[in-house]
Amino acid sequence: MLVDDNADDNFFHARVIRKNDSANVIITQQTGKDAINYLKHKSQHEGQHPDLIFLDINMPAMNGWEFLKEYEKLDQDLQCKVVIVMLTSSDNPEDKERVRVQGVALDFRSKPLTKEMLDEVIDLYC
Amino acid sequence: MIEGIQIINPKWQYVYVNDTLTEHGKYSRKELIGYTMMDKYPGIEHTEVFAHIKKCMLEGQPHQMVNEFDFPNGSKGYFELRMQPVLEGVLVLSFDVTAQKQAEKYLKDTNVMLDEMVKQRTAALELKNKELEQFAYIASHDLQEPLRTVSNYIQVFEEDYVDQLDEEALSYLKSMAKANNRMTTLVRSLLDYSRLGRDKKLTRVDIGQLVSEVLSDLQNAIKVSGATFKIGILPILNVYETEIRQLFQNLIINALKFRKQDESLSVEIMAEPINDSWRFSVCDNGIGIAEEHFDRIFQIFQRLHLEDAYEGNGIGLAYCKKIVELHQGLISVTSTLGKGSTFMFTVPNLKSDE
User: Fold this and answer.
1) pLDDT value at residue B307
2) Do A88 and B144 touch (CB under 8 A)?
């Protein structure tokens, strides 16, 4: 699942995943709220529950950090295997530290998602 | 006569006053002679001036003081008093220094006011500077996203339409990608630049050790250039470690980059203590810099050479300047075109944050 308010980024990242043949289903959500709702209603889309989430941080209304807080409250069964935080700026030390401290997200990568990044993440965590 | 003269006898009575004193004291001679000091100035026995006169009377030694004096009419005056023991008692010479005192006070008040103004303006400047830095940070941060989108779509375009594009169209696309990449680099440099020293701590660092680490990081580039390095004895100082590492790295990379092609490069890195700081120098025998460019090279995005001749973003020395200023030091260059350059910077002994 891609969670990003930027439709262009969603388009591009989905395309990279599709071209790399890395996922059976790609779900894109443009707000943190919609993403949480999707996860909550797992029963309504059986077989399409995400294993891997790429999460944008800078989003209006519910940003990535707030998403992670809500996500943490979900039943274990509704959570997915891996959440990767996607950072906008290459190496903001504050954001990296926050990923480490918050602990729900397993790792972070810098945008844009590339084929190499995707292979590496799947190799490491899936 | 400008000096007031009065003689006080051991019973504290005025036995002699001159005309000037009657002007100073605002009492006529008739009102003073035969009366005691306490009659005329009730409470005077508790004052400093009384104590001095008393001491002079008892010890027979001259005394001197400046007295702040409240006139019966409420105004204030300042008198320099010189007390001299005489046969009749104590002779007090008084000089009206009110004007001088007022001038001193005015000067002092003005200085305090100026200090205050300087403080206010410095604070205002610091705030403006912070705002500018914040602006650079936010701007460079937010500019990255649209740039990435452009670069993503260039990639998509290349991948999906390569069959439908002729050579010319492809070369245009390449130029777009190149310009976009360059802008991405510039924006990222600007972001890094504005981030320098944010929430950093001063730590005790062995600069000699740090420089040898930088040299070992750069060993490939050094090998290619065939440069020889001479490193003097370098101090241990409280610095922002990452930034100081970057500073030396940038200066060394510059020396490597701007070397002469027909002469082997040698670089000297030295340090000497000067007053409360250390002055470092990085000296090379490279291509040198013309004097008219000495200031410009430290400004961000300023370059002296064509991209084709020497690649770069015009940011390295701007970084260096900001890092040195972060340490409250100064950076400068001396150079002769065709002979080499010496970059000098100071790092004061700063107190550690730890």
Assistant:
1) 67
2) yes
Contact in structure between B286 and B259 (CB atoms under 8 Å): yes
**Which of these three, B96, B115, B133, is where a domain ends?**
B96
Last-in-domain residue among B55, B81, B96: B96
**Owner of token pair 């409280």:** B238
- Number of structural domains found in chain B: 3
Q: Find the Cα–Cα–Cα–Cα dihedral B301, B307, B309, B313, rounded to 10°.
A: 30
Which residues of chain B make contact with A56, given a CB cutoff of 8 A?
none
- Domain hosting B190: range is 102-195
- Give the C-alpha distances (Å, rounded to integers) separating B31 from B12, B15, B16, B35, B74: 15, 12, 12, 8, 19
Residues 48-87 of A with CB under 8 A from B: 58
Comparing A33-37, A94-98, B313-317, the range with the smallest average pLDDT is: A94-98
Beta bridge partners of A29: A3
Query: Tokens 């006070």 correspond to what residue?
Result: B105
More confident call, B350 vs B257: B257
| Domain annotation covers residue B265 | yes
For chain B, give the mean pLDDT.
Answer: 89
Nearest to A89 among B141, B149, B152 (CB): B141
* Chain B residues closer than 8 Å to A59 by CB: none
Predicted local distance difference test score (pLDDT) of residue B327: 93
Instruction: Identify the domain containing residue A22 by its residue range.
Output: 2-125
Domain match, B40 and B118 both = no
Q: Are residues B64 and B163 in the same domain?
A: no
Q: Is residue B353 part of a domain?
A: no
pTM score of the predicted model: 0.59
